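User: Second chain of the day. Same drill as before.
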Amino acid sequence: MHQRCCRRLPPLYFLRRGIHSTSTPTPADAATDATLLGRLTRLLLLHRYSAAASLLSSSGPLTPALLHAALRRVRLDPDAALHLFRLAPSRPSLLAHAQLLHILARARRSADACTLLASLLSARPPAPPLFPHLVEVYKDFTFSAASFDLLLRALANAGHLDGALQVFDEMRKLGCRPTVRSCNSMLNRLTQAGDLGTVVAVFEQMQHAGTLPDEFTVAVMAKAYCRDKGVAHAAEFLEEMKNMGVEVNLVAYHALMNGYSEVGRTENARRVLESLPSIGLSPNVVTYTLLVKGYCKEEKMEEAEGVIREIMKNKQLAVDEVVYGAVINGYCQRGRMEDATRLQNEMINIGLQVNLIVYNSIINGYCKLGRMVEAHKILHEIEDAGVRPDTYSYNSLVDGYCRKGLMTKAFEICDMMVRNGFTVTILTYNALLKGFCSLGSIDHALRLWFLMLKRGVAPNEISCSTLFDGFIKAGKTEKALNLWKETLARGLAKNITTFNTVINGLCKIGRMPEAEELLGRMKEWRCPPDSITYRTIASGYCRTGDMVGAIRIMNEMEGVGFAPSIEMFNSLITGLFIAKQCGKVDDILSEMSTRGLSPNTVTYGALIAGWCKEGDLEKAYNMYFEMSGKGLTPNLFICSSLVSCFYRKGKVDEANLVLQKLVDTDMIPGISATRLEIGKLANALDTVAGGNLHSAKIMWNIVIFGLCKLGRIEDAKNVFADLKGKGFVADNFTYSSLIHGCSTSGFLDVAFGLRDEMLSVGLTPNIITYNSLIYGLCKSGEISRAVSLFKKLQSKGISPNAITYNTLIDKYCKDGHITEAFKLKQRMIEDGIKPTVFTYSILIHGLCIHGYMEEAIKLLDQMIENNVHPNYVTYWTLIQGYIRCGNMKEISKLYDEMHIRGLLPTHMSGDVKQACPVAYNQNGKACHMKMYC
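Assistant: Same format as last time:
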């Protein structure tokens, strides 16, 4: 893999820009006073330095020509040369520097040589390249080649990589071989700079020149290969180095572990760790910390915390603040603050100091969740612990308050920050700008922008993008473009993020020619567009139904080396439906498959929404079943598309059924938070709805339904009240969701009040509404009111259904009024409603509870005769009844029947049936069934 190649490798400095041009050294003045030169050099060689200084003060200054000549004469005495160099009245010439460096290199005075080079390289203004003068002196002195290597190392350590690469190339021409130490310095600096292609080229030329790698070279290259060619290539490289007999140290394996963790393959990193003892290396705390960081990145927090326990069990290692800090930060990033706090307390209990990094992680975690009281409390805790907060601490709090729209609080933190001696940075201003823009306070954001400029704080790409995005979202696109032009005139905003933001704004308002014109200007200004740029413009064309433009941009994108992503194909699918070209959708799906791309939730969302708009509910539903079969969960957009389609077709009951079946509270943004922020939720839903009022209404119904499903009635009521204040017109589903939620939670007065409100706004409550009220009354023990309401249904023109009867029958059975329950069953039949499996199961349960087992069995037989198939709950109810009676023989018969009907897993033995008759479903989990689904 790393064989030495015979071809001549190109000069490395051409791989990078901005190389210093090689200038011809100016020859030294030949004219000098021979007598003075002789006397001066004799005094220097005798080490009579004070006498030499006196001589120069009396006879005239030390000219460059005299210095060069004297250095040449004392070139074998490094002390004399150093003292002479220091006698120069101003900074000596580059030629003098070159002479002294050769003298020091020959004498192996590396420390003095490094000091000399450091002084030269840090000079302001920067000195021209020293290398040409070194070559001149090398030819004159005929020593020392080591000076080139010293210069190479000094340039690399100082970060002057262009100069270092030039010296590396020129040394080969002179036949000088760089040391492995200098090569390592250059390789390490190039890796840190991210110039990985050059790293590989340097390594290849280093081997070509005969400089053998050592363990440090291997460690640096392992890191570079992980980032450039992939972790598999790095693993292969380490194996090759081992086979060549080059030592591979722990640092190299750390690079490999980090490479695996970066690409989400932490289990591979663990295997590397476990292999270390077999090759004579002992893992240390850093090794385990890398594992922790990998697990945290993969959100495997339990595994990450498990690594801490592994370290504690290892008597050779001591767990430290860094490991704990990594796990705590992982928990904080995922909003698991209770776990983070638990580990913080554990740290303290075992005697570890909670450092600022840990405190900052916790502050940031609370701020992201909007729990600002706790975040502020941690700030005081830091101060009480004698730890000084830093700018990160304050900026996290500023950002947290801005996220919640509490701008006054955010500015109070800024004031506190300044009082404590910190400067308000661009990060602080960016958070404040984003806060104002999120609130739609564009004028305040603009004033803050000009205040930044006035105070000399240069906006960065995030500042520019935030402000432009704020203007565009507020519908002030022209102002955004004007501000952008002003910003360009100031020399700012010429970066990919800002260009993409402006292009996105133009595409959103359909100004596609301007967006494409900007794409051309990006190329002119040497800010090459990225895949996001092309995707944004293609999506813009798709939104207008211009598929020719979209395909043209996609082809151009592929032409410059960017492969179309799944997001690009999702946009094309949406565009085809907008352009009324749905016949081409299958072609797009085939091309996706050919390219190895699998449809994701967004793809199915586009397909379902498209077929719904076409009115093809069958295809839309087929797409839904296909995505469910692949384990993908429908989102809010998909749910609202299906419901909208049902509503348009007048299938209200089906729409309500879809809502009840599909709505998962996880699909509603922000609903899982402890305190619902209605403003942020409204912004999220408006974004999804895209200005469509009908879609927005359906989504708000989903939110109210989801909140009621969670039992968060107060939040549901607050959302409803806020919506009414904004002109939201509730429908039957809205009221039914709220009435059901209030009834099941015991808020009966509120539920009936909502029923009356429905009537007052011209909506007619249906049987679903009244079933919720009857259920609430039964649950609250008010059976007489429930029966009274039931009797009034006929007069309201509403017919009770099976759920109505089942609810009342269940209440009678629970209260021991079995006769009344059977009377209701009879009336149910007379009203033409066939008793369901739930009806029979409820009645059987009532009989069993009161010990009427014979009647219960007769009812089971009647149920079967009436072609109503008993389910697991029916049999389990009877089994429980017989268990109470101690009649194990009848239990065995029931189990046999259950086996015949396929209601019991066949692997359960008779002993298990008798000793532990617990209900299990097909997944082996405890089985519970709601009686009124």
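DSSP finds 51 helices and no strands in the chain.

User: Great, on to the next one.
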